[in-house]
Amino acid sequence: MAAKISPERGISSAWQKLLTVVNNALVYLDVRAAEWVHWCGNFQELLEAGALNVYDIPSGRGGNESETKAVFIVGTLLQSETLDLIQCIVQASDFQHCTILCTVPENVHSFAKHTDQTLDISPFGELSQKLREWMGNMYATVDVHYVPLFPAVVCPGLFITPVFSTFFPLLPSDVPRLQKFLRSMGDKRVFNSLYDFEMSLLPQSLQLKIKMFAFGLNSLFEMLEVNEDCYGVGFLSKVIATELANLPAARMRRKSASSRASLILIDRTLDLVGPSGHSFDTLADKIIQLLPRLAQHNSDVAVDMSPLCSNGSSTPQTVAPGCLAHPRDPPTQALLCSMITKRQKESLMDLSRHLQEALTRESMTEKSQRMPSKISAEQLKLMSEHFRGQPKCLKRHGALLQLVRATIMALKSEHTSQMDHLQAIEKGLILQIGEHGAQSALSQVMTALQADNQQKFVDVEHVLLVLIYLYSLTGQECYNSPIEEEQIKNMMIESLLSGDLKCSSESFLGPELLEKTVRSRISDAFEKVRGVNLARDELQMFRDVFQQGTALKPSHYQPLVKQIIDGVFSPESPELPDVEFKSHGFKDLIKTGFSLFMNVSKPRPNDHPLLVLFVVGGITCSEVYQIREALAAYHPNTQLLIGSTRLLKADDLFNLIFLQDNLFPALH
């Protein structure tokens, strides 16, 4: 069998290049670059490579007289807020050597400024001049370079893109706003669907985000040394696939690529059932759902390690939180892979076995007896407590113990009962739809809103997520009559104003509960929920994710990603109308356009030895499990690489849909 194609070697090479420039320098990172370093490198290695210190750019902290060199690693455009922060740091310091490494290439900066590099000074050249002015020395050493920091491996076969963790597709409910934007630009045409809009009609900030993302994907395929066919499922994915297919840098790269691959991009908005729900196939999903995010991070979690410290030796301020990312510890990374790709019971057995082996190695316990058939949080807690107050052992097995502590926290979480309650509502909706049709499901949500203390909703966020779950599950079929929807809206507004329903996201309703604001925000939220309702309307083959029950199998949710894998690899699916191929050459045009007249077969995603399946907008660990399980059923020779912008939990989905402007995305 051919050697596995993987981005690890390319990521390692990018990291080594970073290490060569940090000697004797203060290193500054923005949050995007810092998250990439967290998954791909190690802050300790930056210091060992000679970095004097590592700061975040927003800290604004300048250097002292002896600190004369600075390296800025930036995960977005070098403009506006980011550039202002760099200017403040440089002007407050005595730097004689400044290096800026930016994940956005120079020609995208040109597009941002509407300039042509051939006619004007290049954006990086202009920035170099500005830096020298800020440094007060026109002869100072200044370097500004593009550095692609795109994929970050979570575990073998799965990667995320921290620099694009907030990138999220549009919904059909964005069409009126997009229409209004174009009217303001003098375009009077009428557009009825997202698919009516070309890339050039989108707001510039969204065009820039798409171009930046396409360059990121190009750098991934450069690492993999492959020539890729591009496919898109959903509006944004098709726009990105077209951009990547026709990117001049990608066309040049494809000429010398030694192997072939297929890329399928999928819009997250086409199926929001899994990420808005609370049923977990894997232990990793439970951990990500129940533990708080690591500060300033969008995929990792914060793990409380203080129970393994000696009594009285720690406070919350003195013990740094643990996490899931351990790129320099292959056994722990493999264990995380088990937690993502296996059922919870198997993952707990793997975790317990590793912990037992660590205890035996440290002579903290006798050689392991037979493993119990069921591993509990209490057993893991008792085993891990052998390490308490043993700093050397803690250091040796720190990565493993962070995964163990994350598991204990998830299994003993105080939020478990709330998750169980929401899961029961979701299962009830599936049952209701299966027995009485989609039209009856909204009454179930009303019942939960009116329920007694044990069964009622606590947060408005949970109500909206259940509605997202329901509307995404059933599509247009859910919508019965405007009257029921209006009743739910009014019940939510009254419950919020009376205090029966809480809101933990201050930016959703504002610091004060004003009736006008509450009504406006709930009304806007329902527009977005209706957008979810219509998201799959343009699909033919993958329009339904709800499977009606039979005598042998009850009604159930059929994830879109699983359906796509089945469609690609099943010999019974000769046509894939929803998986749109984007040609990047004359040969492809012949294949797609003239296949009726010539003896050529249309391209298919399983034509090549590598398939990259990328979900734009986040993926859950359960979906990773489902994708791998679906692929295994076909025993193909195809290698699968799964990618997404982030590891997703329900709270993230609330922020991405209701609190973030995806039509005019922030670029700072």
Characterise the protein shown here.
It is a single chain. The protein is of the alpha/beta class. 46% of the residues lie in helices and 10% in strands. It has 27 helices and 14 strands. The strands form 3 sheets. Strands 6-7-14-13-9-8-12 form a 7-stranded mixed sheet, with helices on both faces. A 5-stranded parallel sheet has the order 2-1-3-4-5. It has a two-stranded antiparallel ribbon with strand order 10-11. A hairpin with a 2-residue loop joins strand 6 (152-155) and strand 7. The longest helix has 21 residues, at 204-224.
Q: Could you report the average pLDDT, rounded to the nearest whole number? A: 91
Measured on Cα atoms, how large is the radius of gyration? 26 Å
The order of strands across the largest sheet is: 6-7-14-13-9-8-12
Biggest sheet architecture: 7 strands, mixed
Please state the structural category.
alpha/beta
Shape: globular
**DSSP E strands, number:** 14
Separation of termini? 45 Å
Task: Enumerate the spans where pLDDT stays under 50 for 5 or more consecutive residues.
Answer: none
Give a topology summary.
Blueprint: H1 8-21, E1 26-29, H2 31-40, H3 43-48, E2 53-56, E3 69-74, H4 80-91, E4 97-102, H5 106-113, H6 123-135, E5 141-146, E6 152-155, E7 158-160, H7 175-184, H8 204-224, E8 226-233, H9 235-245, H10 248-256, E9 259-267, H11 273-276, H12 283-290, H13 330-341, H14 344-361, H15 377-384, H16 391-396, H17 398-411, H18 416-436, H19 441-449, H20 460-474, H21 482-498, H22 506-509, H23 515-534, E10 546-547, E11 556-557, H24 560-569, E12 580-582, H25 586-593, E13 610-616, H26 621-632, E14 639-644, H27 650-659
Parallel strand pairs: 1-2, 1-3, 3-4, 4-5, 7-14, 8-9, 9-13, 13-14
Antiparallel strand pairs: 6-7, 8-12, 10-11
Helix pairs in contact: 1-8, 8-9, 12-17, 13-14, 14-17, 15-17, 18-19, 18-20, 19-20, 19-21, 20-23, 21-23, 24-26
